[in-house]
């Protein structure tokens, strides 16, 4: 590959790496699994980058590749997903910014999201990232109407999980 292509890829990856980290957090538990998935997504993005035509934003394309990679690996895994208790995770937040109520809400939300299937996780993730239904449908390869219907069902499912 040309040096220009490589530099372009590295710059785009730096700019959009938070997308990948968020997807890794959604589909993994634990730092090692997160790093492994991040590396695998980066490899898949790099392999596919020469074919990226720019028809959509890089971030939309990266979402698609990252979600497909995460979902494929998630489905291939013959092991059960091992979870780590939220309390055992280390968080580095300064004392004055720490909010116990928010922590509890986030804990409950993540527990609920972990109960969703892989496509539902992808949809709710993009929704929580403030992506509009056009971008969600383009990224996931479904119609906007289908994205809206699925999102409404997911919201109902999360409500039932959070408020039994």
From TrEMBL:
Domain RNA polymerase sigma factor 70 region 4 type: start-end pairs: 109-158
GO-annotated biological processes: DNA-templated transcription initiation
Keyword Transcription regulation: yes
Keyword entries, A-Z: Sigma factor, Transcription, Transcription regulation
Gene Ontology MF term list: DNA binding; sigma factor activity
InterPro entries found in the cross-reference section: RNA_pol_sigma-70-like (IPR039425), RNA_pol_sigma-70_dom (IPR014284), RNA_pol_sigma70_r2 (IPR007627), RNA_pol_sigma70_r4_t2 (IPR013249), RNA_pol_sigma_r2 (IPR013325), RNA_pol_sigma_r3/r4-like (IPR013324), WH-like_DNA-bd_sf (IPR036388)
The keyword Chaperone belongs to this UniProt entry's keyword annotation: no
Record domain RNA polymerase sigma-70 region: where: 15-79
PANTHER family: RNA POLYMERASE ECF-TYPE SIGMA FACTO, RNA POLYMERASE ECF-TYPE SIGMA FACTOR
Homology family: Belongs to the sigma-70 factor family. ECF subfamily.
Protein name from the UniProt record: RNA polymerase sigma-70 factor, ECF subfamily
Organism field: Flavobacterium fluvii
């Amino acid at each position: 590959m040309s040096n220009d292509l490589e530099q372009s890829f590295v710059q785009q990856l730096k700019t959009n790496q938070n997308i990948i980290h968020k997807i890794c957090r959604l589909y993994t538990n634990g730092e090692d699994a997160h790093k492994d998935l991040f590396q695998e997504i980066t490899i898949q993005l790099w392999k596919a980058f020469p074919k990226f035509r720019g028809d959509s934003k890089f971030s939309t394309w990266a979402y698609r590749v990252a979600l497909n990679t995460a979902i494929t690996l998630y489905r291939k895994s013959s092991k059960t997903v091992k979870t780590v208790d939220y309390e055992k995770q280390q968080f580095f937040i300064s004392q004055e910014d720490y909010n116990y109520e928010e922590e509890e809400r986030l804990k409950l939300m993540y527990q609920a999201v972990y109960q969703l299937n892989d496509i539902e996780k992808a949809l709710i993730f993009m929704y929580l990232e403030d992506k509009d239904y056009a971008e969600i449908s383009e990224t996931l390869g479904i119609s906007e109407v289908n994205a809206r219907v699925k999102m409404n069902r997911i919201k109902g499912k999360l409500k039932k999980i959070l408020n039994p």
